[in-house]
Amino acid sequence: MPKSVLIVDDHPGFRASARRMLEASGYAVVGEAGDGEAAVAAAGELSPDLVLLDVQLPDLDGFEVAARLQGLERAPDVVLTSSRDRADFGDAVSESPARGFIAKAELSGQALAELVG
Amino acid sequence: MSGLRRALVALGVLAVLLGLLSTALILTSDHSSPRGLLLALVLAAGWSFAFTGLFAWDRRPQNNTGALMTAVGFAWFFQGLAASNNEWIFAIGILGQNLSFAILIHLLVTFPSGKLRTRLQIAAVGIAYTATGPLNLLWALFTDPTVQRDCPGCPENPVLIGGAEGVANAINAIQVIGGSASIAIAIGLLIVNWRRSSAAERRVLTPVLATGGTAFAILFVQLLAGELGAPQAFQGATFVTSVALFACLPFAFLLGLLRSRIGRAEEVSSALSAENQQLNAELQAKVEELRASRHRIVEAGYAERRRVERDLHDGAQQRLMALTMTLRLAREKLDAEPEASAELLDEAMAELGAATAELREFARGIHPVVLSDRGLAAALGGLAERSPVPVEIAAAPGERLPMPVESAAYFVVAESLTNVARYAGAELATVRVERRNGALEVEVSDDGAGGADPDAGTGLRGLADRVAALDGSFAVRSEAGEGTTVEARIPCA
Questions:
Q1: What is the pTM of this model?
Q2: Which carries the bigger pLDDT value, residue B438 or residue B316?
Q3: B321 and chain A: CB distance < 8 Å anywhere?
Q4: What's the CATH code of the domain at A25?
Q5: Rounded to an integer, what distance in angstroms lies between the CA atom of residue A49 and that of residue A43?
Q6: B332 near A CB under 8 A
Q7: Which residues form the domain of A95?
Q8: What is the pLDDT of residues B303-350, one digit of tens each?
Q9: What integer is the mean pLDDT of A66-78?
Q10: What residues contact B369, with CB distance under 8 A and at least 6 apart?
Q11: Could you tell me which residues are beta bridge partners of residue B429?
């Protein structure tokens, strides 16, 4: 059974590309969200296995969303992503409950599989 | 020694000589008594006025007061001449003996400037001179002193036409009335002048008014006493008192003059200090304004960089990320699904075109290349073309201007047109940019809703700072229902 994924990003163009890439790599994209609050709500409702979470969102930042997802009854794996480098965020990535970080430029099914199996 | 100083010294010598002559004439007079008192009065009043006047004249040559005081002193010596036993010297003395009072009135009503300014001043002085000059001559023509003045020792009057007591008395009455009127007007003027004066001016006037006012009041009493036939002892006492006061008067004038000098210096100092304080306050305000403006410009710089970063991140960078993923996917599908791969490549090319356009627009926002290459008129044309609201360019400078000026004008128009498109609901915007009177005048007006608040957004504030940095002015007029007009004036020699 393919892993279910929720895509969280405020750019529709990116969400569309990511959906196509994930589906091509064998993931089941169960939903999309454009901001942090919508992401927490969708995750509670859809209970995805994985959340691909953009760090820069219009309301909450990705780290706070990751922390709140961790509090859900069935906490999903979280992979942070951004058009910036991991180094731009200092220790925030390693201190967050997320499984890992993939820069958008390097995002692929294989890179995701290496992080979450 | 200057010419003036030499003339003043010569006048001083003349005053000494006149004093000595008066002394000789009085001491040998057959008809003046009491000689000692008369001599004391003539010398005291004559010399004190003459020398203090010469001193004041020397110290403040531009002020007429010194010359008038000197003239009063010299006029006093007519009293000495009138003591002469020689009929011609006696006649000269008689003709001029009251002149000092007229000059004194002149001096009092014009103190401390010495200049006649108002009609009342001219009236008081004119009447006084007429009564003591021409009328005195007229009186002398009809007066035989040996008879009419009960002066058996007096010399003959050489200008006497004929003793006519009635005529002489009539003329004398006119003189007394004129003199009284003149003194009354002078006292009135002094009172008015006093009431209108500031505290500093009163310090100048006080010694003169106190002494002169009292002296004239006593003289007034003496004139009336003479007319009313008061006892000789009373008339003599009032005469002596008033003359003694007149002798003190020049020192009062001198004190007043010196005080006016000090007072003026204090006023100048106080005015300078006030002006200095005001300049300081203005300078302080300017410094505060500059500090605030500099702070805003630095802030605007940071804000601009954040905007650049955000625009790049949200725009071209996102497209490039999506493009990367699309290309990666196309490559993965190249062997197994070549058609799907070709579709993805088409999509990638479209995305690349959009990213390129976005970058071009973005670069124009940082600095429009057309502005530096082809000037303001061409750049304004480009803004008008891209504006969603129709724009009429009513005027644009054909010549090239300094880059900071062109750039500020461009961004004023660009930001204003952006606001017109976003908020105004206008059907037409008009842009007028003209070089006039050493400045570039920029005006962007629209026929929209108006009611814009210039302080609400950072855009207009930023424009105002950009214009202020070039020493220009910036204003927004936006009455509700009357459209909005943005005006900037940028100095451009």
A1: 0.45
A2: B438
A3: yes
A4: 3.40.50.2300
A5: 9
A6: yes
A7: 4-116
A8: 778 878 877 887 788 888 888 888 988 998 899 899 999 999 998 888
A9: 92
A10: B363
A11: B391, B446
The reply to whether B368-491 shares the fold of B289-355 is: no
The structure tokens 């004023």 sit at: B412
CA distance A36 to A54: 9
Cβ within 8 Å of residue A94, ≥6 positions away: none
**Residue pair B75/B99 in contact by the 8 Å Cβ criterion:** yes
Q: Could you state, in order of their start, the residue ranges of all structural domains in chain B?
A: 3-196, 289-355, 368-491
Tell me, letter by letter, the H, E, C secondary structure of B21-38: HHHHHHHCCCCCCCHHHH
Complex ipTM value: 0.75
Count of domains observed in chain A: 1
Q: Does domain B368-491 match CATH 3.30.565.10?
A: yes
Beta-strand pair B473-477/A100-103 = unpaired
Closest partner CB to B318 (pick from A20, A83, A107)? A83
Nearest CA to B218 out of B291, B130, B210 is that of B210
**Helix-strand-coil percent breakdown of chain A, rounded to 5?**
45, 20, 35
Q: What is the CATH number that goes with domain B289-355? A: 1.20.5
Written as one letter, the residue type at B278 is Q
* Secondary structure element (H or E) that encloses residue A51, with its range: strand A50-54
Q: How many Å lie between the alpha carbon of A14 and the closest alpha carbon of chain B?
A: 5
pLDDT digits (tens, 9 = 90+) for B139-196: 888 887 766 566 767 787 787 777 677 788 888 888 888 888 888 888 888 888 888 8
Which of A13, A20, A84 minimises the CB distance to B319? Answer: A13
SS3 (DSSP) at B172: helix
Chain A residues with beta carbon closer than 8 angstroms to that of B319: 13
Q: Which two tokens stand for residue B460?
A: 């207009």
CA distances from B470 to A102, B293, B413, B414, B493 (A): 47, 12, 16, 18, 12
Query: Which of B313, B321, B351 is opposite residue A105, by nearest beta carbon?
Result: B321
B480/chain A closest Cα distance in angstroms: 34
Q: Which tokens is B357 given?
A: 């356009």
